[in-house]
């Protein structure tokens, strides 16, 4: 089946997620017995879940979203604790192009309704979290999305069945014991489990998720904050003016987003503590690995920091334990603290998933993210996809896939993969005469939001064909497995930051194939050529071949 679609739009619907497209599967009848069946189940009615629901709704698919709260966006009813988002709401750009404006709108979800742009819900550059709750509520309501509220999925397991699309069904059991069955499971539950480090005295810490947000509760106190991310600095910013001092302890130095160009690092809006530290006030930043330390409570009820080694030497009273004297020694750490606050980030909640799904963590990201392929499909279970923040392992610290302005586009790409795999719907494309190729690509680079936000992950593919001819059926495959002659007509268009890996190693994730690069495999033996490639053997063909018309037409997948 050719990936070419004869019609489509060159604008916002564009973008190809660069992974292999599986052959479309024949639709099979839903099971006639057992629990209620749906083709698609979405866990979570946060931004990622609602975004996927929108695409499923527009495609007329059989789906349901399961949400434990009575309304969508329940995460934002509680977080961030101090209510100010750090996602940009830039309402004015001087441009009328809607796609370009989405580059600078980090809160809106994709839809056909211009009323559902976040700029209509807040005029603040950094909006209040309550505005996001109101926005998501309207998004679900106005679009008529199928959300089952007050439905907590307590357990998810597999039921093997050869008649199922993926060789099994997913069985979801809710808090009432009712079972739900689906062919494809889309997990959009985010990161919800507070990260905790086990060290002696960790029971004395207060978590970011529960600590008071009233500055009056910290007046005249010495406060130690564990962590160095936005939640730690957000907490410090809230109490900076009422405390005696704040010390912030982490195992490495603070990473500033303006220096790293990664939006998940410390943002300028939260870095007031850096000012007071650098201007020689009483606040301070301390560096040490938490696993080497211990917190003890003295007879006055105050907390002191020491080395775990000293604590393990014998059964000593808190007042007799030696304070650090080696490389971890820091005069500031010898002072007693009134409060110790833990701000160490979040992990994915694996507890509801049965072992049969093999949805596991591991590798570089330990407990934080589930293991997924470059296509965001679970490495353990075909047909299980991870959306939103929890899918950020694919582009962690590289792109914006862990945030709304990034994962709204990866959700769209996943939906297009599902449309092609299960419903035989070709990836959207459009055709242009070759005379417009250069201007079309330049326009995409200057305007496209998905390419702009998800650099190194999303790309456009351009295929050339001779006038009157057909573009051959193509798929992405591993470069090392390219056994037949290469072909003419490959052009990848993607955006990348300076110093990033070249397109063939980063925009085509080798993880899916076990290779570091991939090529576009087509049935016709043309000459292959690529953009921004480091392969000197790939040469750009002349668009005017002897004996052929001078105006071949490129087919563009996006």
Give a structural overview.
The protein has 558 residues and is an alpha/beta fold. The chain has three domains: 22-192 and 346-423, FAD/NAD(P)-binding domain; 202-342, 3-Layer(bba) Sandwich (FAD/NAD(P)-binding domain); 429-557, no CATH class. The protein contains eleven helices and 23 strands. Strands 2, 3, 4, 5, 6, 7 and 17 form a seven-stranded mixed β-sheet that branches. Strands 1, 18, 19, 21 and 23 form a five-stranded antiparallel β-sheet that branches. It has a five-stranded parallel β-sheet with strand order 9-15-10-11-12, with helices on one face. Helix 1 packs parallel to helix 8. Residues 1-27, 476-492 and 497-558 have low confidence and may be disordered.
Mean pLDDT: 78
Give the helix tally: 11
- CATH topology label of the largest domain: FAD/NAD(P)-binding domain
In the predicted model, the low-confidence regions spanning at least 5 consecutive residues are 1-27, 476-492, 497-558
The figure for the number of domains is 3
State the CATH architecture of the largest domain. 3-Layer(bba) Sandwich
Could you state the CATH homologous superfamily of the largest domain?
FAD/NAD(P)-binding domain
- How much of the sequence lies in strands comes to 15-25%
* Number of E-state strands: 23
Q: Gap between N and C termini, in Å?
A: 17 Å
Classify the helix fraction into a percent range. 10-25%
Major β-sheet annotation? 7 strands, mixed
Radius of gyration from CA coordinates: 26 Å
Structural class: alpha/beta
Give the overall form: globular
In CATH, what is the class of the largest domain? Alpha Beta
Organism: Panthera pardus
Cofactor: FAD
Function: Probable flavoprotein which may function in endoplasmic reticulum associated degradation (ERAD). May bind non-native proteins in the endoplasmic reticulum and target them to the ubiquitination machinery for subsequent degradation.
Family: Belongs to the FOXRED2 family.
């Amino acid at each position: 089946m050719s990936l070419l679609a004869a019609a489509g739009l060159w604008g916002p619907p564009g973008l190809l997620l660069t992974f292999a497209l599986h052959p479309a599967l024949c639709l099979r009848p839903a099971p006639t017995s057992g629990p209620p069946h749906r083709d698609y189940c979405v866990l979570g009615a946060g931004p990622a879940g609602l975004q996927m629901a929108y695409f499923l709704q527009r495609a007329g698919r059989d789906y349901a979203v399961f949400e434990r709260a009575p309304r969508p966006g329940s995460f934002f009813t509680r977080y961030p604790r101090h209510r100010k988002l750090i996602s940009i709401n830039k309402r004015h750009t001087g441009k009328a192009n809607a796609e370009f404006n989405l580059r600078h709108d980090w809160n809106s979800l994709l839809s056909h309704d211009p009323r559902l742009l976040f700029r209509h819900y807040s005029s603040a550059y950094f909006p209040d979290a309550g505005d996001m709750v109101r926005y998501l509520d309207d998004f679900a309501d106005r679009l008529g999305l199928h959300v089952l509220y007050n439905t907590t999925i307590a357990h998810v397991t597999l039921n093997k069945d050869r008649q199922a699309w993926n060789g099994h069904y997913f069985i979801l059991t809710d808090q009432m014991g009712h079972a739900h069955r689906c062919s494809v499971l889309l997990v959009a539950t985010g990161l919800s489990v507070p990260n905790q480090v086990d060290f002696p005295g960790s029971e004395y810490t207060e978590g970011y998720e529960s600590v008071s947000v009233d500055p009056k509760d910290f007046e005249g106190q010495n406060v130690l904050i564990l962590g160095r991310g936005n939640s730690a600095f957000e907490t410090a910013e809230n109490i900076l003016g009422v405390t005696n001092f704040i010390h912030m302890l982490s195992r490495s130095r603070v990473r500033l987003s303006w220096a790293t160009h990664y939006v998940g690092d410390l943002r300028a809006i939260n870095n007031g503590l850096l000012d007071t530290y650098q201007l020689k006030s009483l606040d301070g930043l301390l560096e040490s690995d938490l696993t080497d330390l211990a917190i003890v409570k003295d007879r006055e009820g105050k907390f002191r920091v020491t080395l775990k080694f000293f604590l393990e030497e014998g059964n000593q009273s808190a007042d007799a334990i030696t304070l650090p004297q080696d490389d971890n020694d820091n005069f500031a750490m010898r002072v007693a603290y009134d409060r110790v606050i833990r701000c160490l980030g979040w992990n994915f909640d694996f507890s509801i998933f049965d072992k049969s799904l093999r949805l596991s963590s591991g590798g570089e990201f330990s407990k934080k993210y589930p293991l997924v392929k470059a296509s965001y499909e679970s490495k353990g279970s075909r047909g299980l996809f991870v959306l939103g923040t929890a899918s950020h392992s694919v582009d962690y610290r590289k792109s914006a896939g862990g945030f709304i302005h990034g994962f709204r586009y990866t959700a769209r790409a996943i939906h297009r993969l599902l449309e092609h795999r299960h419903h035989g719907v070709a990836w959207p494309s459009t055709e242009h005469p070759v005379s417009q190729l250069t201007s079309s690509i330049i326009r995409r680079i200057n305007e496209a939001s998905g390419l702009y936000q998800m650099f190194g992950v999303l790309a456009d593919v351009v295929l050339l064909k001779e006038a009157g001819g057909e573009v051959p059926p193509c798929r992405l495959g591993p470069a090392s497995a390219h056994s037949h002659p290469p072909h003419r007509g490959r052009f990848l268009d993607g955006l990348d930051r300076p110093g990033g890996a070249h397109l063939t190693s980063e925009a085509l994730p080798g993880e899916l194939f076990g290779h570091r690069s991939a090529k576009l495999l087509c049935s016709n033996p043309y000459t292959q050529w690529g953009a921004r490639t480091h392969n000197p053997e790939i040469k750009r063909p002349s668009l005017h071949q002897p004996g052929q018309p001078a105006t071949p037409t490129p087919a563009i997948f996006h």
